[in-house]
Amino acid sequence: MLLQILIQGFLLSGLYALIAVGFTLIFGIGRILNLAHGSYLMAGGYAFFWIGQIIGLPKIIGVALAVFLGAGMGIAIYRLIVRPLKGDRIAVEIATLILAVILQAAIVLIFGSSSKIPHPLVPGVVRIADTPIAWSILVATCASWIILLSLYAFIRLSHTGRAMQAVSMDPKGAAICGIDSNRIDIIVWSISGGLGALAGVFFAGYTQLSPSMWVTPLIISVAVVIVGGIGSIMGTLAVAHIIGFMEVIVTTLIAPELRGVFTMGLIIVALLFRPRGLFGREEI
Amino acid sequence: MDIGRHHLALWAIAAAGLFVLPSLVGSGILRTLILANYLAIFAISWDVLSGRTGYISFGQPFLIGIGAYTTAILTKRFDVPMEISIPAAVLVTMVGGLIVLLPALRLRGSYFALVTLALMELCYQLVQVIRPDITGGTRGMSGLPTLTRGASNGYYLSTGLMLTIALTAWMLMRTRLGLALSAIGMDEGAVQGAGLSPTRLKSFAFLASAFIAGLGGAFYTHYLGSIAPRALFDITFLFTILAAALIGGSGTVIGPILGAFFLTFLLEWLRPLLPGAERYFVYGLVALLLYMYQPAGILAIIERVRVRLFGDSRSG
Amino acid sequence: MKSATSPGIRFLGIRFSGTRFFTAALLAAAFTAHQAAADIKVGFIGSLSSDTGRSTLRGAEIAVDELNASGGVLGGQKIVLIPADTGEDVTEGIKAYEYLAESEEVDFIVSGSIDDVSLGWIPRMREYRIPTLDTWTSYIGIIDMVIEDPEAMMPYFMNIASDEALATLYIDFGKDVLKGQMGWNSVVILAEDTAFGGAITGLVTDALAPEAGIEVKEIIKYDIATVDFAPIFSKAQNSGADFIYLVSSVNSQVVSSQYVKLQVPMAMTGVNVSAMGADYWEDTGGAGGGMSTLSPVPSVGFKLDPVSQAFVDTYRARYKDRPVMPHFNGFNAYHGVKQAMAAAEAAGGFDDVDAWASNMKQQDLVLELDGQLWLRYGFWGDDEVEPRTGRKYPHNIRFDITEPYDEASPSMVVIQWYEDGTTAVIYPKKYATGEFALPSWVK
Fold first, then answer.
1. Which of A12, B43, C247, C301 has the largest CB neighbor count within 10 A?
2. For residues C281-305, average pLDDT
């Protein structure tokens, strides 16, 4: 039982980290909450499904399309919503929320409202310690770790990454140092969208595609940001594990129907008692 | 700022117009007007809190839902008459408003918005899990007592309620208290510096908002005659309220009303043209574009047209 | 028309033929154009983008066209069908009902609404007193409302067997097949945390143990937004039961496809609403084999009588997109609209609701296959007590839950999805076209 919880907790948490990382990146760089983040996952998942199961092309093309689509959406949201609103955070939140509702209607328009299950990226199941593990989620977890670690290295080591850090800490100072913050923003928004859409491929392969599927990942992302505070990559990884393990433990040991109640409760408690999050820096 | 005679005349004409309307238009339009009235009440309730103080609440459906559920449960499960259940619902909602207030004492901006959103989601989950025999669980409750029958009675009731709330809110906002609330939105520190207590002002705004939300929610439930968690604690409902207040013109009383009427009628007029999901797509797109490119709302458009037509004589 | 594209279509960079968007607009225009000549107006309330809603809408469309082609109703009047979308949203459902009643002033409404949407508009129906037929929701609470307040609920009819009847016959399946044939003695119930899940779970637990002799080891309720079912399946396995009984109506593909993907080494059967449609196989990308579910009749894999078969042939020739086969409620709408019109003929129209309702209760359509009763569209008498469940079902479709099912249709059948994507009815015996099967990985 304990081993099962450990395995299932690690797997789910890896997926959650991948879902949330783009959201925390955006929050880190502009203190902006992109409430259309769940829509990247939806777009990515549907693109993957469309390529693989409607057009009938190889899955890898679906993954590529999903990532490009997500990145494109990220840039579009930045150019068409964030920039015109000149960084008014509340306005961006409201506009992205409206956008998410519109995209939901668009999905109903194109694909109808019945849910669909896309083929998992990697089919099959492996059994470790009597616990069945879908290859698809194992791959998602490994991919998530690889992506997060390389993202961490990229931000720490590369020139662009350092510029991102600088913009995140002090946009004005960064501008004085000659950093083109516009370019940095576009890079971050496209990374965020691309990773979100990739997470969507894994997420949808595991659960389902439906026009309202953007809500759950958004709540996960929000929980990660709130509990973790202003996002460091490592903070995201850590908090994704707190939330993932909490879900598995609640489901296995307490009461599966209270899964959502616990996640919401965690958000509220964290906000009330540690508004800057467990790993947050001082500024909000 | 005194009310001119022509103002009074204008109001009298408007009131008379509203009164005779049911004999002029079909009951289909009256039904749409009723829903627009209730949406206007919810949008005003949001605006009293968020439009003034700058604390953006994503949890207005949480407050409305508390009011609606309280009166629904009292009347349906405990046979409490509506004269008692509705005031009780308003009181309970105000307690809910205090719950929303707590995080606001520590949090600002995005964090406050998120905690209210989380409260709404939590309520959605709890209604289903806790005592579904009382709340009706996911299916909700049907066959609740209604206050009125027929379109025109519902129209008079909702219009009266909406106008009373709007007028009260308008007069309140013209007092120094209203001014102080708006000042919180601009600079909370300065309010404190001026010797006023932001906490007390905020408490007032939260309670006023909750009062309106609870009242609107309770009457709304007894108009609909049914209640379901998905109809209340829902992001789509939140989106409609926010959109009504914002695209109408937030920070005013007339703005949210305009927005509510515009959105409700837009959705109804699209129905025969686009019967399916296309309607929500167009509706959302219109809301987003208006919000992006006309941040001061429809009110500002009307004002501009008025100035162009009649000159700037009555500004202020 | 082909070159026309709507703004929504380029939105996701997907080339999507604009026909659907414009068909909808044209449809609306056509309806408005027809209205001038129309005499009898039938409203449809339901979701225009879900399989559920569309089944009812299309069933009604075909019935209306056939009635018009044979000279109309009530002295040669033509029928027009006016759709009102609910988007499966309760408030939208109320608005849609008001729109049909007030703006369109329809004479009769056929509904493909889901439970909470129906509950939402029922107060409006009581107010307007428009004859209304529900074809999808099987919620027994609505029938209870008819019993409590027969006068107010007079215009309401439901032509699908209600929950109680579905669950009772399902117990027989447990007794005959799960216990009798498979030799299973204990069950773990996996139920979604919704009103539907609670109701079915209650009915099954109260009767499964005493009647079928199957012990309920554990009841696991889960949150419908659950992402990962692996811990839940582990929990089910640890209960030590012989099989899983699933109760799932919302997002039921998620749990069944994860069951397949994880190859849970334990048999699973139960109620899986999404597996009731023929599109299930495509929707799950093939991850749906080995599932069985109860379904109201007629279901996928159900042998059809000639009349219903003719309806399906028309349906298939006419509609190319999903649902490729009408769900049970499509049949209910097709037959039900015709019966409502026949009742109106007898009552002299829809205006006198009491007269219409009493004539509606007289409607009785018996469909035979190979000389035996196969399906029946009739209603229970107001004071008639169904012997097995010991309760009344006024305004609810007549069903028969005792072998040999020669009084009326059975309330449900059990359908089986095989791993090659084919389906069969496996219970009751009279209707069976195949055998109960376990997934290949279950020993």
1. B43
2. 87
Q: What would the pLDDT profile of C394-428 be if each residue is shown by its tens digit?
A: 999 999 998 889 899 999 999 999 999 999 999 89
Q: Where residue A129 sits, what CATH number does that domain have?
A: 1.10.3470
Chain A, nearest residue to C50 by Cα: A113
Q: What is the residue range of C141's domain?
A: 19-161+307-362
Cα distance from B165 to chain C (closest Cα, Å)? 23
Query: Is position B161 within any domain?
Result: yes
Domain boundary among C362, C382, C401: C362
How much is the average pLDDT of C90-96? 89
CATH of the domain at C315: 3.40.50.2300
Task: Tell me the DSSP string of chain B.
Answer: -PPPHHHHHHHHHHHHHHHHHHHHS-HHHHHHHHHHHHHHHHHHHHIIIIIHH----S-HHHHHHHHHHHHHHHHHHH---HHHHHHHHHHHHHHHHHHHHHHHTT--HHHHHHHHHHHHHHHHHHHHHS-HHHH-GGG-EE----S--SHHHHHHHHHHHHHHHHHHHHHHHHSHHHHHHHHHHH-HHHHHHTT--HHHHHHHHHHHHHHHHHHHHHHHHHHHSEE-HHHHS-HHHHHHHHHHHHHHHTTSSHHHHHHHHHHHHHHHHHHHH--STHHHHHHHHHHHHHHHH-TT-HHHHHHHHHHHHH-STT--
Q: Is-contact B129 A258, C-beta < 8 A?
A: yes
For chain B, the domain total comes to 1
Share of chain C above pLDDT 90, in %: 54
Q: How far is CA C401 from CA B97, C56, C389, C406, in A?
A: 52, 25, 9, 10
List pLDDT tens digits, range B116-147: 888 888 888 888 777 778 888 888 888 888 88
Answer yes or no: do B126 and A258 touch at CB < 8 A.
Answer: no
**B118–A272: do the CB atoms touch at under 8 Å?**
no
Question: Does residue C2 lie within any of the structural domains?
Answer: no
Q: Do B142 and C119 touch (CB under 8 A)?
A: yes
Is there a domain that residue B316 lies in?
no
Domain that holds residue B159: 5-18+25-310
Please name every residue paired with C376 in a beta bridge, in sequence order, or none if there are none: C366
Complex confidence, ipTM: 0.85
- Cα gap C251→C266, rounded to integer Å: 21
Task: Residue B198: give its domain's CATH number.
Answer: 1.10.3470
Query: Whole-structure pTM over 0.80, yes or no?
Result: yes
Taking an 8 Å cut-off on Cβ atoms, the answer to whether A252 and C322 are in contact is: no
- State the DSSP code for A253: I
Q: Is residue C5 part of a domain?
A: no
Q: Which of residues 199-258 of B touch A (CB under 8 A)?
A: 235-236, 238-239, 242-243, 246
Could you tell me if residue C378 is inside a domain?
A: no
- Which range, A109-118, B72-81, B301-310, C15-24, has the best average confidence (pLDDT)? B72-81
Q: How far apart are CA B270 and CA B280, in angstroms?
A: 9
Q: Given pLDDT bands bounded at 50, 70 and 90, which one contains residue A280?
A: low
Where is average pLDDT lowest: C89-93, C104-108, C187-191?
C89-93
CB contact under 8 A, A105 and B242: no
The count of domains in chain A is 1
Q: Is the dihedral of CA C299, C303, C161, C428 positive or negative?
A: negative
Q: Which residues in chain B have Cβ-Cβ distances shorter than 8 Å to A31? A: 110
- Residue B253 confidence class, pLDDT cut points 50, 70, 90: confident
> Could you give the number of structural domains in chain C?
2
